[in-house]
Amino acid sequence: MLTHCWQETIRLCPVIGRGGDAGYKVRGRMSDAPSYSPPVKIGEVMCGATVSRVVSSLHPDFAEGDWVLAYSGWQDYDIASGDDVINLGKDPQHPSWSLGILGMPGFAAYMGLLDIGQPKAGETLVVAAATGPVGATVGQIGKIKGCRVVGVAGGKEKCRHAVEVLGFDLCLDHHAEDFAEQLAIACPQGIDIYFENVGGKVFDAVLPLLNTQARIPLCGLVSGYNATELPDGPDRIPLLMATLLKKRIRLQGFIISQDYGHRINEFQQEMGKWVKQEMIHYREQLTEGLEQAPQTFIGMLEGRNFGKVVVQVGPSR
Amino acid sequence: MLTHCWQETIRLCPVIGRGGDAGYKVRGRMSDAPSYSPPVKIGEVMCGATVSRVVSSLHPDFAEGDWVLAYSGWQDYDIASGDDVINLGKDPQHPSWSLGILGMPGFAAYMGLLDIGQPKAGETLVVAAATGPVGATVGQIGKIKGCRVVGVAGGKEKCRHAVEVLGFDLCLDHHAEDFAEQLAIACPQGIDIYFENVGGKVFDAVLPLLNTQARIPLCGLVSGYNATELPDGPDRIPLLMATLLKKRIRLQGFIISQDYGHRINEFQQEMGKWVKQEMIHYREQLTEGLEQAPQTFIGMLEGRNFGKVVVQVGPSR
């Protein structure tokens, strides 16, 4: 596998679409800020996925004329060992599509929407960067799944494309001054899924419209990639979001009775066992008398309690 | 089921522990700000879960002397229809524990940690409000699952309790001026799970220490409940967190290649089918010539592209 092959690079070099892994990776590697990929050094070839044709090969799995998907970067030719190079065959229908709809952007759209977004028929799905390779795919999968799809894009032409060609129900121009109001009107039932690709003011407009149990696959934050650093100002939402994205973190609000009511038997069995076996200790802070309830409550909010606060009103036996 | 029974209320009235559903509900219902529960009206009985004893009953499922778990609020007696009243029997071992370890706080700890937190042996779990009914349970379940558990509590006495009685590996006092530094030192391997119960400065100290693929079950934000309103200031993290909690939202960062690499075959089959059947449209913006790559890339970051940006370097066939 270490035999070297020549490959003609870059027939087609993606300069990445909005959002998606690649966008973050490529822009992120242009700075030496901590990220999940090391920075590109000065003098090195700029990184990027490529679709290329093999010029000559000593590798048994690749022959002259084969189309390949690789990560050869911004250059005309490359030499590859064959590792991490995917053979697309002699005659793929659209070679460059392996950089988009059939590659990482399409895959991100598919998994992010279906696995994290969990779309259900009749739900409202909002998609930023609606005509980018990720957003366009997200919206169209959303339509296949029966969602009402509201796109957000920059400019009338893109918005028209999203509706007329991609089949979105609606697409709003985020350049409009009253964009947030337009979005609220466009989503009278609120937003069930927001596929986050851009961050910034689109997220701000989405936030108050999110429905209970909404899902936000956080795939990219392209609006912030060009900032020279994360804002060190008082608003730390950009910092939080960048952290969640880079570190692939799940942050999930839950309300026990509403989210897990159906699993209470499992809990009671397991916890009953642990408590009985003294694997779990439990501490109460008993206050006597209903008239103590308000002060006790205030004390609890201020952290002056120690253990579960319980007010004893009558005799306990 | 609508026959009324008398019940003696409130043997034990919980005035809620830190965090958990009840805390948010009770404090939240003291204001008329929009929330998932309606506000308590002036003159109405303040809401709260209760453990009570039945004084007399016309209901077939409840007899005099039965202990019951109900939601009767801050008062001495209540009349209940029997709906939403759980019979604990004649002689439960610790009647009031149904308000804590064996009730909603214990259940929130159990589900939040196990289902959202997904603890694995050897991971670092940080638990705020470490001696509260939720936090104490979270930390102890964490130990059962083999985690290194770092508690956070207010005051030395609580911290000592967390370590000596509950068996946490460590517990830090959030009143310390150098709390954030202490936390960093206490978590040399970073934080894999942060069970969020308090918000505010504990979250601020946790954020930079979170590991890749960390999980944050967001169960409560008690540090903010007493604020008269959500800060309208420039920092909107409190607003975001309150929204995620109230609406039980899942916000999840992901990086497609790293999170879903193992499911690429499924994607390629499904997407290949959709593209072939023209259920999904795809648009590329081709730029010719490698020398156009930088300008094209900049244009994409600024939103001047339309569709997946691809730079064509050589002939495409």
Automatic annotation (TrEMBL), chains A, B:
A single MF term (Gene Ontology): oxidoreductase activity, acting on the CH-CH group of donors, NAD or NADP as acceptor
Keyword flag Zinc-finger: no
Domain Oxidoreductase N-terminal residues, every copy: 26-86
Family annotation (SUPFAM superfamilies): GroES-like (SSF50129), NAD(P)-binding Rossmann-fold domains (SSF51735)
Domain Alcohol dehydrogenase-like C-terminal, first and last residues per copy: 133-272
InterPro entries referenced in this protein's UniProt entry, alphabetically: ADH-like_C, ADH_N_2, GroES-like_sf, MDR_fam, NAD(P)-bd_dom_sf
Keyword list, A-Z: Oxidoreductase
The protein, known as: Enoyl reductase (ER) domain-containing protein
